[in-house]
Amino acid sequence: MNPEQVQLVDHAIRSRHSVRAFLPTAIDPQIIKDILDVASRAPSGTNTQPWKVYVVTGKKRDEMINRVCQAQLEIYAHPEKASDYPETFAYYPEKWISPFIDRRRENGWGLYGLLNIQKGEKEKMAAQQLRNYKLFDAPVGLYFTVNQAMGVGSKMDISMMIQNVMVAAKARGLDTCPQAAWNHFHSIVLEVLGANDDEELVCTVALGYADPDDIVNTFITPREPVENFTVFLSE
Ligand SMILES: Cc1cc2nc3c(=O)[nH]c(=O)nc-3n(C[C@H](O)[C@H](O)[C@H](O)COP(=O)(O)O)c2cc1C
């Protein structure tokens, strides 16, 4: 690659960030197909390509949002109902440790601060959480599944594919938000998708054109410098 191409690749990677307010503008289906086509160049163990993607728009999107929002609202009214919606795999640890918990808190309060949500404002927090299940108003929901038979390695494979999707979307002027929030409601999601019994929901990605006027989209997260997470060994 020449230096200009390197710059373009770096720019697509660096400019990706999680967008949490989208315009209703529809996306040309061919663009979505192109994104998935290039994203499928992701590596996978022994080229198993264990990913499956559902592109959900229109009435199906509305049905998905309505069903899952209703379930979440029921949980707000009757918190004990949360146990009806267990995740199939634990994305987050049961017991948090530093420095991860500190970054998690910094992230959460940073976002809430921008949205003027203070500690204890449970209703405002719930409303923001509920926005997850409206895809932050994105016109497209991408639901990524793997076959349960493929084991934990397939989650690595599909994650690489998902990152490609997000970068390829960025290169086309689109934005994304990866969402683990939907995983609790996998039973509803898989039913609405008409998925097979052996499929497991791994992640959802909201896809659309970012709302440039919504303050939530100005939230840019920090990263540790390379020296803090890298060990260079030579002898
Ligand atoms: C697998 C995964 C699941 C995520 N789930 C959610 C989610 O449910 N809701 C949300 O608002 N953000 C979610 N995020 C976004 C993260 O909060 C975000 O990636 C992180 O704060 C770094 O910010 P950036 O993506 O803007 O660089 C998720 C990210 C990943 C990788």
Structure description:
By secondary structure, the protein is α+β, with helices and mostly antiparallel strands. The chain starts with a helix and ends in a 6-residue tail after the last helix. It contains eight helices and four strands. The chain has a single domain (3-229), classed as NADH Oxidase (3-Layer(aba) Sandwich). The longest helix is centred in the first third of the chain and has 20 residues, at 58-77. The chain is globular and about 55 Å long. Strands 1-2-4-3 form a four-stranded antiparallel beta sheet, sandwiched between helices. The structure holds flavin mononucleotide. Residues 17-18, 20, 107, 132, 177-181, 203, 221 line the site of flavin mononucleotide. Flavin mononucleotide (FMN) binds at residues 17-18, 20, 107, 132, 177-181, 203, 221.
Please render the helix and strand layout as text.
Elements: H1 3-15, H2 29-39, E1 51-56, H3 58-77, H4 100-114, H5 122-132, E2 140-147, H6 153-171, E3 175-179, H7 186-193, E4 199-208, H8 226-229
Antiparallel strand pairs: 1-2, 2-4, 3-4
The structure holds flavin mononucleotide (FMN).
Residues 17-18, 20, 107, 132, 177-181, 203, 221 line the site of flavin mononucleotide.
Keywords:
single chain, 235 residues, alpha+beta, NADH Oxidase, 8 helices, globular, binds flavin mononucleotide
CATH fold description: NADH Oxidase
**Bound ligand species:** flavin mononucleotide
Structural class: alpha+beta
Shape: globular
Q: Would you identify the regions where 5 or more consecutive residues have pLDDT less than 50? A: none
| Helix-strand string | HHEHHHEHEHEH
Helical proportion?
40-55%
